[in-house]
Please model this.
Amino acid sequence: MDASLPAHMRPERSFQGFILALQRFWAEQGCVILQPYDMEMGAGTFHPATTLRALGPKPWNAAYVQPSRRPKDGRYGENPNRMQHYYQFQVIMKPSPPNLQELYLKSLAAIGIDSAVHDIRFVEDDWESPTLGAWGLGWECWCDGMEVSQFTYFQQVAGFECAPVAGELTYGLERLAMYVQGVDRVYDLNFNGRDGDAKVTYGDVFLQAEKEYSKHNFEVADTAMLFEQFKMAEAACKKYLDAGWREGNRKEHLMALPAYDQCIKASHVFNLLDARGVISVTERQSYILRVRELAKACGEAWIHTEAGGAA
Amino acid sequence: MPDLLLELFSEEIPARMQAKAADDLRRMVTDKLVAEGLVYEGAKAFATPRRLALTVHGIPARQPDLKTERRGPKMGAPDAAVQGFLKATGLQSLDEAKIQRDPKGDFYIALIEKPGRAAIDVLAEILPVIIRTFPWPKSMRWGARSGKPGSLNWVRPLHAITATFGIETEEPDVVKFAVDGIESGQTTYGHRFLAPGAINVRRFEDYDAKLLAAKVVLDPERRKDAILTDAKQLAFAQGFDLVEDQNLLDEVAGLVEWPVVLMGSFEPEFLATPAEVIRATIRNNQKCFVVSDPKSNRGKLANRFILVANIEATDGGKTIIAGNERVIRARLSDAKFFYETDLKTKLEDRLPKFEQIVFHEKLGTQAARIKRIERLAAEIAPLVGADVAKVKRAAHLAKADLLTEVVGEFPEVQGLMGKYYALAQGEDESVAAACEEHYKPQGPADRVPTDPVSVAVALADKIDTLVGFWAIDEKPTGSKDPYALRRAALGVIRLIAENALRLSLVRVAASALAGLSVKPADAQKLPSDLLAFFADRLKVQLREQGARHDLVDAVFALGGQDDLLMIVRRVDALGKFLETDDGKNLLAGIKRASNILGIEEKKDKRNFEGAPEPALYGLDEEKSLAKAIGEVTAEASAAVAKEDFAAAMTAMAKLRPPVDAFFEKVRVNDDDPKVRENRLKLLGEIRSATRAVADFSKIQD
Model:
């Protein structure tokens, strides 16, 4: 931890200071620090900087915060740590550096988690995303019995082998910050690190949103519109993919990113429909498969682009 | 002789894979050594979260030399053949070859001596192959090299390989090889946090000691012992008892290299949640042990838990305990919330949801299955002395807890939660007990329920499962038994035998079959087919108990046996009888009679059945045997009718002296064909007399 920081910027005092400390740490490791992707998504992995950039031979090191929308996890702001919107901090390094575990442990030290007093463990947890056609092996990282991060070596994304393999780290920011700040309720997190009247809590920023979105996600979201949006996004994705091949040659693709946006859109719309309880168990599987088909096709397109292709 | 030290140092290996991996490493290396003619003295393998290690001691320094002979062309063969022979064998000229004469002529023979190679060279060849082909249940690629084809697959990234070979008194050599860019050497690393520096190792003895100094306990058994001892002591010091848990211990020992046992606590209010739920929460989610309070009655849980950390923290573990307490508090609040939420819904109100849940594609929904079990259990109820109304109620509710929050979270408390929720909504005690006990017995060591309501539902549940999967032809094959049908059948056997129940399995199975919506093609055969499966399970069970399983065949061979209790009792009585001298000798006599009959029947191509003619008895031994057969048959049949199989065996014992005397004094194959036929018929009578209890010819000696 940087001792020169003013108190309100210290990771154990403020949520924003916590995020800044992580960004700074990973910037020092050579990562590009991106901003959140401007679309709703269920996890930082969906960001094209991870999903698409994990494919292809070119090196890629990036870190960013990504708001994660999980409509089903909304609890009307009544649960101390479950929300339909929260932040993930995502790091992706391709190829995975040989010292990625050490870097991860140093990043914990940078946010105030000292391995001389905390029990940090790598516990088996294999990661799989059926919607992204992706899987990897790794761990959930425990700090004093609490899962604080996910550590994955991507083996396959969008149905394609990762060559070389990328290492992915996902930090649950609120949970970690709660631990470091010593609060039991997420809404009590000090957001800006100030005291007294100047203090802004996580609840000040997000509690109202949690209540509103929970009502929206579970009770009111327009399902007829959403079903239509799913179909439209799916159709648009396919259309852009078809149109993207230069001169129809299937050697070079010019629109992988816009097509992938529609895949992200379809996935989020599906999550909303799922939260509204209008998708039956059997249908659920088929929706997941439809999104996966889109993701795979986008992956196929991506590896024929400049950033995703060879040379 | 030299020893090998091998260590594969990697990122964290999943706990559940470590023991098998150590074993595989030992097996693969030693098998290869033996195949290469290098017979070793001993080998031992170890695993920690970050390393697999192997020591093989007493390996010969060199392979033995191999001498082989190779036959070449005939003398005077064309030059091309001779040149080929010389090239293949490495001889300079035919002068170096031997000549051997055989009936086809004189041939050149080359003597090829293949000197044994140095063991270290052999190791350098086999170790990389073993590493590349190691059978991890799941493996992965990593790093820059994973972009190229043929990169190494390992369970998690492999960082270093230590491989040394040499005798105790000398500096050992490194077994030189490289796998995917990792060069073998003699450098390993200590504990990730407590002593992360590099360590130079020579051979197993200093390796083990240096690791210990670097806060790594190499041997998993030592880690387990340390955890168990410390955990017990820590609990004891506070006046509690550790609730031991072998599986958890195995797992926890695979998560640490330097176990440090600590104790934490939680709010006593949480103890209002059922103990099993607390234990499942703390164990499954946090991999911590619970402790019981011996001062409370029935040794209830105490509000403490025991965790195993991987470091000696500089604050003595205060932070670690506080962190774990926080998580456990949150988890227990969730569990308490689930439990309290569950209590708000009556079990029967959950049932409609089962209409949506498929039990098996071909066997319909869970709701349909529950209806079948209800009907079958009600039919079984009078046969086991259970109240029909209670049985119906129990069968109706028994599966409802599958839809509760707690069971959703912790599947292992299914049934048990059903009991708690049933009691909470004021169900009859037997009905509540059946919600839990109808799953029992789960295995050979599990308790068999005795309450008739539980017994009826347990039988119905298991028989419906068996008949259902039989009907759709999903029987167990070989090692595959995905629906645990063998366990279900054994459960039925134990329920019947241990509760001394009388019921016709064929009839119950037929009734279960009638309740199914699928109609198998060979429905007629199904119950008897299933009965044969029960016979098999019974044999397996007897074999595992060390009893004679061949007796099951001897009893089943009588035909028409579908009353499991009677079968078990017959087998039991027969087994005891055959342990006596009378039993053994009678069995020998009966076998002899059967053998003679078999031979003569084959010779004459006819059967010697039917009653013998008393007028043809010429000898006293014949007469007394005939008399004894008559008496014994009557006595044994009467005893069997009273289901007193021990008495039937006692009656059988009376046959022994006349049978022995008959074989001693009487020549069966008399010159008079009439007398011969009569004597053979008398032998046939012995066989049929004994069939009152079992088919003795099916008994192995």
Notes: The interface with chain B takes residues 57, 80-81, 95-98, 101, 115-124, 126, 136-139, 143-146, 153, 155, 162-165, 167, 179, 184, 280-281 of chain A (CB under 8 Å). Helices of chain A lie at 15-28, 48-51, 100-110, 173-181, 202-220, 223-244, 256-275, 281-302. The beta strands of chain A are 32-34, 60-69, 85-94, 120-124, 127-129, 134-143, 146-157, 160-161, 167-172. Chain A has a mean pLDDT of 94.
